[in-house]
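Human: Note token order:
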Amino acid sequence: MPLNLQALSGDWYEMGRVPKTDVMKCLVVSVPQKADENLELHLEYISTLGGDIQRVRETVQFPMDNFTKNSIFHLFYSGSLSIIITYKVIYTDYKHMTLICGYAGISPVPLIKLLSRQRQLDQRSIDFIQAQLLSGIWYEAGRVPNEDVMNCLNVSVPATVDEQLDLRLEYLSRINGKDQVVKETITFPWDNNTQNGIFNLDYNGPSASMSVTYKIVYTIPKVVTFICGYASISPIPLLKIFSRERQISQQTIEMVNSFLTAAGYADDIIWTDQSFARCNAAVSGYWYEVARVPNMDILKCLNVSVPAAVDKDLELQLEYISSINGETYAKRETVTFPWDDKTRNSTFSLEYVISGNINVSVTYKIIYTDYTNVTFLCGYSGISPIPLFKLLSRQRQLSPTYIDFIKTLAEKAGISRQIIWTEQSPDQCNDAVRPTTGTLAILAISILWMFTKI
């Protein structure tokens, strides 16, 4: 996020923080309107370190380098122990609140600071912040008990709630020895229990009925959430660990294993595999390209068919219409990727030669998918400094809500003028199939064309 001192200038009050330490309070950060060689932030707070209460005023300086200009701040502390702390502004509306996340080299716990223009946040703002921190996709990283009847579980949490909380679940259910993709929505009334992170579920099956209660016991926003529970028909406690990333860190695994060993449940946990290699069945099916960067209009009506199973290679079936040199042709082709570690972790590399001696390499990575609606891919080429972006949708047309959301993100990232919204209507995309240049060559030509315009 580019640093906008003019918009950020003024006093900001610390409203919340992680970790939950009480050695500093009443923190106020004063941001200047401009900076020359160094950015000077004036801090005022009450320190209770060592049991002594005293008011502290100090100035923290940051060189105006590329890090600071992109809202990344490095702090170095030297004493009996040297510490490096990095903070980054991940969200601000400039007028009301700013959210800063960071990490220290000596601690696995992430650092979070919530700053406000006002000395007090109203309850509506607090509820909004908490919802934003929990909203989005969470991947199940581990669970107790270690029953292998469900895999690849991800839960989509909404950012806003009206009268009820709707959680969208997607997972692979093991039925008769085969995995089947299941998509369902679980609804909870927005009552005191739900608002306090307590979720009650009732199951009525053909042979038995039971009730299950879960409670969020600990969460590190944007990182990991721990949920404990119990079922009416089982003495074994329930545990679910959700992560923002598909793969949880080894450090977190070791911490949880130590806790379960001490509690006597070390043999009851199963660590789940959320890799693309294991869970690609949830991504399988048709995807339509609805937007891309750069805004070259030489390829339209692209749709990608992803298989539900992979053997030695991942084969993607592509259909599109090429309009290179003013001629319009429809094309079907297969793009093959080796089923190696890169592909299994959603990274796709393309390498090819055009014009006999020009080597072009392109790498794409899935950075987000909710499986049922949209998938975002970002990438880069070895011959161009301009980033690549593709937005794929399960439907031919995105809803206005999604389009407005993408436009807002693009505006903040400064790439709104580079996006082209592609045509996917059936009457425009049902041309007869004829031989033409392959999609790899089309991509290479477009990148070369773009490079000559820089």
User: Anything to note?
Assistant: The radius of gyration is 25 Å.
